[in-house]
């Protein structure tokens, strides 16, 4: 399976200028490719092939006065940009013919886009130096922070600049599945209403404080921005601040998703989630919380980690309203207004916690044998003795023996 690994890059002044040039040239070639195709379409001609575009928009363009500067950046970067334009068109046409979800026609790229990126393949002869820098053609040896180790040597690196002005190197690496010791437990996970996630064993998980704090800060900065005058210098400054706060929230959220998904995968042999079809939810009032909580990003993480560590990952469709069915006797008890947190099953008399009951139903629908006692009101927890081993100081269990997570 292929996994993506990202690391923070710290280019110096001249390297930042060289990268800005590379982003700019890649953008120009991309836009030229879009224009060439639009022209062909308007003239009723056949779509130009990528090889022809390469000759016309890179090789020949370099010899003209107005595109001579394309020679200042690695030719591979420009080739990859053409390839991106080609893929964008292919996806667009596949959408029209129904082979994949419909999407808009490729858009022109702008220097104001939130994300600038260039890709170097093996042909570009980029490398990791003995000193641990990332050596990029026509840019130089860029300092990189190796926050974890790569499982194998990547062939391609994408260099990204985000809206907050940070640089990243992103590698796609081939990775073979690793085995974790087998465990007996299985778990169903439900998107709780008041919680980020609820597990069928009765655990309710909230976003950690560091994430909530980052989110609060972002909201404050956004309010600040909206009060600034359009087009003013202060507005520009505020916008950068918002972008930085945004990036911090995204990072904190990703970190939280990583910690939680690793824990769930390590502790369970089989994991079931409900396919929420986020698109359908987008119109409901649940929408905002679903998007904010990044539920689909979290589920995707669970899925690839399950594949990576030999666990079963099951996704159940929305065929049954999981919160209306009693997980003990299976009788559908009818809809419950959102404010009802606990209800008593009219048939078997079990008192059910709405969220935990739903999580147990998710597990059962996926064919997992979970202990249904979690669906009942949770027993009061007995605090552990001080100094008792088990979890890490900060409350997050340490992850031992799972490299690369
Ligand atoms: Zn019942």
Low-confidence stretches: 374-405
Question: What is the total tally of β strands?
Answer: 14
Computed structural class: alpha+beta
Q: How would you characterize the largest beta sheet?
A: 7 strands, antiparallel
Describe this entry's structure for a reader.
The protein is an alpha+beta fold and 405 residues long. The two termini are 15 Å apart. A hairpin with a 5-residue loop joins β3 and β4. The longest helix has 35 residues. The strands form three sheets. Strands 2-6-7-1-5-4-3 form a seven-stranded antiparallel sheet. It folds into two domains: 173 residues, no CATH class; 190 residues, no CATH class. The protein is built from nine helices and 14 strands. α2 runs antiparallel to α3, α4 packs antiparallel against α5 and α5 crosses α8. Bound molecules: zinc ion.
Short summary of the structure?
With 405 residues, the protein is α+β, with helices and mostly antiparallel strands. It folds into two domains: 2-174, no CATH class; 186-375, no CATH class.
